[in-house]
Amino acid sequence: MNLTDLVTGGVGSKAIEAISKMTGVSESKAKWIVAAAVPLMIAALNYNAKNKGQSENIDKAIDQHSGGGIFDKIGDLFGQGGSDDGNKIVNHMFGQNTEVVTQNIADKAGISSAQVTGVLATLAPIVMGYLGQQKQASSGGIGDLIGSVLGGDGQQSEGGGMLGGILGSFLGGGQEEPTQETTQASAGGSMTDMLGGLAGSFFDKSNDGQSKGNILDSIAGMFGK
Q: What does pTM read for this prediction?
């Protein structure tokens, strides 16, 4: 299984139905929320995993959520509106960009930021549970695991490749900002590269709300939403 399975497969379908009921939006809009939020979560995790300290923490968190039972109670999870554990995961994923993610999804989806906070806090443990399931069938490290979920061959190049370089500029990695040519190159590469380019642009502080909304549309569009 890969990221597409998580967004549009059986797990994603259950989450979409539950989000629709929780927020009162159409299932079409709920699909957009999942297809925009989940890839951003995976992209952030993939970047954070390049840091040794964070990599170990992510690995432990995945182990804590490795039980498959979470997928049997997705509806109940959304009914609770997110947990403290879920909020902590979201904050670890996005750090200082948590509010940016929340507000821009809220603006684009036409729901309150409080509702988005609840949705993200519920999606986060599901994402970690999914990664936990995949880890049980994987023999590689955390970077290889997330790379395989992103649709790659499971091999992480030095520095995280295009995704690590682009996200590093905006998530605190101190690497050079991507040039227009770099971003265009990522658009023609693998899903990892494309998602990295879009996520990097989303976190770019020079982009306004409308631009970020368009980027979210592009990310969701990668999954047909």
A: 0.78
